[in-house]
Amino acid sequence: MDHFITYEHKQDYGIIRLNRPEKRNAISTEMMQLLKKYLLKAREEKYKFIVITEMVIKFFVQVVT
Hints:
Elements: E1 5-9, E2 13-18, H1 29-44, E3 49-54, E4 60-64
Parallel strand pairs: 2-3
Antiparallel strand pairs: 1-2, 3-4
């Protein structure tokens, strides 16, 4: 399941990438749990912001904390 979401560290922000193009990145229960894990990890790292996007660019979401 980890291959459906990747988490990338940048200098002062994080990038979460969804990778389930065959389902148009619909978020399953398992993906939601993994997304929550990465969001909590990003919170611990005190990033200025988090970018949530997909591997194949078709949609973009930005979350500012």
